[in-house]
Structure formats: C-alpha cells, structure tokens
Amino acid sequence: MNFNYHLPVNLAFGRGRFAELGQTTATWGRRALVVCVDGSATRPGGFVDRACENLQAAGVTPTVFSGVVANPTFAVVDAGVAALRAADCDVVVGIGGGSPLDAAKAIAFAALNAGDMADYIFGRVAPGDALPLVLVPTTAGTGSEGNGFAVLTDTRTGDKKSLRGPMIIARTSLIDSELSQTMPARVLAATGFDALTHCFEAALSATANPVTTAQALSGIRLIRDSLPALYADKLQAAGSVDTSAGEHERCTLPADAACVLWDKLAWAATLGGMAIGGAGVTVAHGLEHPASGLKDITHGAGLAAITPAVFELTLERADGNLRAQEQLGALAGACGLDSRDALPRFVREFLADIGLDVTLGQLGIAADDIDWMAENALKVSSPGIASHPVPFDIDDIKEIYRRSL
Question: What percent of the chain has pLDDT over 90?
C-alpha cells in the first residue's frame, strides 16, 4: 500500500454553526463579497439576510452578489469579479448549493488571475492564488465545501468542466444541517443523488486510495439510510405523498430523529465532495456534464438518467477484471446488497423512492444530440472516463446515452 492524501480544508460541522460565519470570515478579511443565487438576497429573514447581519456584527462589511444561476457560466464569474472590485472586497463568502459555492470559488480565483478562464480549466495557463473563501452549503449534495473543484460552463463551446486546485479550497466551510431542511423535495432528491454518485464514482475510481474509499463507502451508507426517509417526510409535510415511495411513504419523523438524518445526509455530502477531491469522478459525471452543458438541465437529474446505464454496461464489461469486480463488490456491500449484479436494480429502485426516475429524453435530450455529447465527453472528461474501472470508448459512451434516453 502506497499513497498520498492532502486536503487542507477546515470543516466546522454542527447544527447552529451558521452563527459563526461573521467571526470566521473576520479572520480572513473585512469586506466580504457574499455570493448567492438570484432571488435569495431579497428573501426577508433568509440565509443571506442572516449572513449579512452576522458579518456586520463581527465588523465585516458585506456586499451581496446574487447573480448566480444554475450551471454557472464564465459570464457569471466576470460579473461577480466586477462586483467584488467595485466594493474592494478582500474575502469571498459562498452561500447556497453547488452553483453559488462553485461560483464563489471561481470569483475568488478570477479576482487574482486575469485572462480566459478556459485556459486555466484546460491547463494551458498555470493558476495563481485566490482570495480567501468561506463556504456555507444550504443543500446536501455537491460537496463543494470539501474540495477544490468549481464546475463552470463555457457558453461559447458548451464545455462544462471544473476549475481545479488547492487555491480554491475553502479556508473554512461551515456545515450546518439546519440550513438544508428548507429544501423542496425535488431539490433534496437531485442534490442528494449527486452526493450518492460522488461516492459511487470515488469508490470505483482507478485513482482511489484507502482514505477516499473509506469516505465514499461511508457516504453511501449514510445516504442510503437518510435520503429516502427525508424525501418521504418532505412529501408528507407538503400533503402530497408519492405512492411510489415504497416503505417510507407512511414515515413520520420525530424531530430528534429528523435532526439525526439531516446530519447524516449533510456529512455524507461533504464526505462525497472530499472523496472526489482525492479520487476524482468517473463516467457518470463525465457523461452528464455534456448533457447539462448542452441543455442546461439539473445536474442531479442528469445523473439520475445516466447512472443506471453506466452500472449496466460496467457490469457487462467487468468479467475477468478482478479489480473492477472487487470495487463493485465493495460498493454493493455499502448499498446493503448481496451481489454486485444487483446494483442497477438498486439504483433504479432508489431513484423511484426519491421521485427521480427520469430519462435523458424527458430532460430534453434527443438521439441527434448523442454524437456531439459523446465527443464532448471525451474532450472535457477524458481523465475521469479513463479512471473508470473498465475501459469505455466512444461507442460505449454512445451506447450509455442511448440506453439513458
């Protein structure tokens, strides 16, 4: 056994720790750009209001940038940098789901690195430092608070790919599961499944090590035990129980039990982010990014459409591949299964339980899009595709897309 592991992120985990935002941020600067999604800044008493009050109480002057959209683009980053420079900010605070957290990272980076963002993403120009970052996730999914990735879309080309590096790892991430409890059921499902696929892919990656594998398998067990119950409880609270939700459809959660489950899910999401920070993602994410780059679909929904077919073809090609069989077996065990062959069925049933059993066709992808997406996947995600436990060529990628329509 021979490996390296380095992830210098300071995680502050616990319910109520959002209240530490001002004190934490004051360690790194006195003028904070608060990055959030459009609309959240105008919600009275919302997270952004609370964040600004907390920052001001600690002597930090906040400037809110609410121009983030789902699947943030280079233009969003440019606008954020302009707002940062206009207010002379010296620290960046990201609040929200993966889009604002990734945008905050990219803004903090672009503030100190001039030029075309694509050059940094594709490694044509060496990156420099970034402004200090403090991240506060309000969903339980992307794990961006636990790694140095920022996924961005280049609208000029349709490329959706990560800016990566230790310079965009948060100085502190405040992980408070109380913030996640306000998510609608559909957002909970999509972000939670994103976290699950992070764990799946980190556990299968050729660059996995004992630390990332332990993180990933632990995350799978935590999500398996928490997400379906929390999703069903959300539906019950809304008075619209989904009868496809299986045994959880009649679940009523006492407050203490709910807190435990939300903590489990929040920690699992962070573990997933940390795991891919060390092991990377593989085929499912590699194939989803062209789909959402092309059609601007919800990332978690795109993963839900693609992941079952990825497992099907992986199992078909795993005969004689002892390493792949071992990894798939470990993953199946974390899912509570007796056999790796049951993985595709487990994923499909899990998706049905959280109302996320969708196809690429339902998300707006057509058969005519497959050739471009397959070529783009190899352009933007070749390292991740190469890290999958069985080799896939362009014809295999097209087959996965076809099965996912």
Answer: 87
Distance CA(332)–CA(346), nearest Å, equals 9
For residue 150, list its beta bridge partners. 163
What gap in Å lies between CA 335 and CA 350, rounded to an integer?
A: 10
User: How many other CB atoms are there within 10 angstroms of residue 6's CB atom?
Assistant: 7
Measured distance CA(123)–CA(351) in Å, rounded: 36
pTM above 0.90, yes or no: yes
Side chain identity at residue 50, one-letter code: R
Phi-psi region of 281 (alpha: psi -120 to 50; beta: other; left: phi over 0): beta
Reference 169, options 196, 150, 151, 188; nearest CA is 150
Q: How far apart (Å, rounded) are the C-alpha atoms in residues 224 and 114?
A: 43
Determine the straight-line distance between the first and last CA of the chain, rounded to whole angstroms: 41
Question: What separation in angstroms does the CA of 105 have from each of 109, 161, 164, 385?
Answer: 6, 14, 10, 25
Pick from 262, 186, 278, 182: nearest CA to 226:
262
CATH number, domain 183-404, options 3.40.50.1100, 3.30.43.10, 2.40.50.100, 1.20.1090.10: 1.20.1090.10
Query: What pLDDT was estimated at residue 389?
Result: 95
Domain at 11-180: CATH code: 3.40.50.1970
pLDDT in tens, 146-188: 999 999 999 999 999 999 999 999 999 999 999 999 899 999 9
**Closest Cα partner for 331 from 146, 196, 232, 234?**
196
Task: Count other C-beta atoms under 10 Å from residue 319's C-beta.
Answer: 9
- What one-character-per-residue DSSP string does 256-308 give? HHHHHHHHHHHHHHHHHHHHHHHH---HHHHHHHHHHHHH---HHHHHHHHHH
